[in-house]
User: Fold these one by one.
Assistant:
Number 1:
Amino acid sequence: MERLILAATLAIAGAATAQTVAITPDNAAKLRQVGAEVLFWNQQQRDQNFPAMEKLFPGHVVKAGGKVRPLPPGKPLAIPEGDIETAMTDLNIAGMIVVQDGKVRLERYARGYGPEGRWTSFSVAKSFTSTLVGAAVRDGYIKSIDDPVTRYIPDLAGGGYDGVTVRQLLTMTSGVKWNEDYTDPKSDVARMFSDPVPAGQDPTVAYMKKLPRETAPGTKWVYKTGETNLIGVLVERATKKTLADYLSQKLWKPWGMEHDAFWMVNPGGHEVSGCCLSVSLRDYARMGLFALSGGKGVVPDGWFAKATSSQIPPSDEFSGGAGYGYQWWVLPGGRYAAIGIFGQSIMIDPAKKLVIAVSSAWPRATGSDLSAKRNALWMKLEAAADLEL
């Protein structure tokens, strides 16, 4: 792994345009261990690699268009600069932006990051992927989210996903057993690409098909990154487009994203749709504005209202008491968020027309103490925004 990182880092430079490492038999084999590798990087590696994933791993470019959606400056938030600096230090924040009513009210960078760079998303990508499902429904590629998953991924048939619907994948209520423990190298989330698969088989499908049924579909919520990876397979097969190309077509170009994005691929050459997008901070904020807008003309009418409403009460400690929609976390007060490990987030408050996007390098993947600090930061920023309403 270290040799791959060193060679790639020496070979490729620059951030304004996504440059990819081509997939080869050698690095495809290394990709099978990427879950365990990335989850257990030390702090120096996180700081160095989170803004440079395209220099390390194979992936696809999400092309931006020529016209950029403006983010004009607004009135600065009335919040002490010392409070911002303390929060950024406590949470290892590399970038933070607050946009209200379409205007930037706060924007800060640290840890060598800046507005021209990209930062990895981890599970923030899940909310992008679910939005592509909405686009595929509106475009007619997916007839209904109540269709069985096996209609679109027939090679899943005969396993735990028999009888599971697209909706149940979106809400992580398939009933299939899964372990999302980021501290366990033997967990499903760490091992899902670890086993070689025969030529022509999709690595995600091959792994997920082996998993046993735990409960009846639709009865229990369990967070499963592997299921978002299945959603990506489903969208790719339904649309016959790569996720990067479809995201570029439906969102990146028409919504005016400023920079190309980078989407890491698995050993089979398909985007890892449960994570691994690298996006600039301002474009993360634009994604929040897209959701806030309702996505008219891209997703079905009312899609985001359903996607950001709790579909079934989460039933384990992983949720921290939040609800879950279609790959969006549902928060109190009508707010919702895309959230990823190591401190990535896009939080949206429709009542305040507010978007807060944060890119971080937390010292651990998750933790109730870190989540509490992040939530306190959100509340402080929202309170400052409230003062101007």
Number 2:
Amino acid sequence: MDNKKNKLLIYGAAGYTGEIIAARAKELNINFEIAGREPNKTRKLAEELAVDYHIFDVDSEYAWQKALQDKKVLVNAAGPFKFTAEQAMRACLRAGVHYLDISAELDTYRLAEALDGDAKAAGIQLISGAGLFVSYDALVVHLSKLVAEPEYLKIGFRHYGGFSKGSVLSSKHIADLGLLIRKNGHLIEDPDPDPKIFSFGSEEVECLPTPLGGIILSYKSTGIPNIEEFFSLKLPASELPDLTAENLPEGPTEEERALGRNGISAELTGKDGKIVKAYVDAPSGYDLTPLSVVAVAHRILNGDFKVGYQSPGSAYGEDIINDIPDTYLIDHDV
């Protein structure tokens, strides 16, 4: 790895979440540039942030080479990741640049996993799912240390704040995979998809079976052989518009995001039957994701990384949650 490389590149920076990521990088005085496919929006954002910019399509190998030549880390914020992750990952492998994205698409996690050997050969860290799954994974790693042989994980995610247009587009690629769980180390269709009630501090919430990142990312971090995931949506005061409408807004406003919080609640059963529970209280989703991915990028820029395919937890354990502002891991009394 070239020690002269010290910059961050944010691809898809002019998108809804990308703009919040770029604002966070600016707030931390990180040395960064932005890139994207939309000329006018990218130029306008670069002027507002007073940073250099690149405009290119994700399929342009030459443009990637030029944009990454003095970079240490790439944050790919351009979804749906089905159409951008592989090109961006392979560009980072060629350039020797660490790769992060904020995908919630299971297939991008599988792709990153498959590129483990290439990432090791290139000397880079490759993490797909370095957004909200940073605190999610930290929670699972924390619980895994509290039992001798972690066996069964059930985890619920309470999302506040509606969805961005990009998330809606990505959600189809998640739904197409079906209701997956991990059983005895293998990914299978959930044979008995019943809802489950989780405790988020003072609030008990029914969550529905939904495949999230833990069945791949937290399995990488902990090796827990049985993982089931659940999801609950809590909307802001304004109604969520028709998710198929072409005029879907870019995402929740800053005011809407500030009105509620995300929660991640987990219970882990050890082989001996011991049960441990904890939850994460965090900012709403479209604040949590930028805070999280920039926290990971900041670690890498300061030389803290592990080469090869990693999950947030396998790279940084539970301590990374301390780098995410206004985010708290709280143990339950069982």
